[in-house]
Amino acid sequence: MGMRCLTSPIPLTRPFLVLAACALFLSAGCASKTVIQSIPSAPPLQQPVRQPAVKETLLASYEAWKGVPHRIGGTDRRGVDCSGLMQVVFREAFALELPRTSREQSRLGQNVPPADMRPGDLVYFIDKRGDHIGVVVERGRFLHASSTVGVTVSEFDAYWWPRLKRVQRVLPPSLTAARAGS
Asked: Considering the entire predicted model, what is its pTM?
């Protein structure tokens, strides 16, 4: 009788299964990866850009023109007269074109009682040299081109108050409502 060799299929398949499991485990490390990114946050809410108040705008114009000498017919930094200053300031600060002379400028807009004047209103005077015009910067003060000191801010004092003849509101309500300030 011959000897029989007993072989079991289990021992042969066990090393194969272990090897297959290792290969599967190792190959998983090379698979494409899913990267989880953080969800982008919403951009920060933008605050509306605050328009400077009329007063601030006029004071900035004053700083730019402060001390420029008075020159009849002038409209630049070499010299400016009162109506030339109003023309330039309203163009630069408010994108508003005014006529060239103080008499024409004084007829613009809506007539306002002096007690109701506010920043941006044109103030029209009869001065010893004739017509004179300025713009209210804040309560009790106005910007103008003085014949003696050049571009300046003056008080409605004992000299100017009695000479005030007219206050004209020329800025559109949409501008003054959005940029009010006294």
From this structure: 0.70
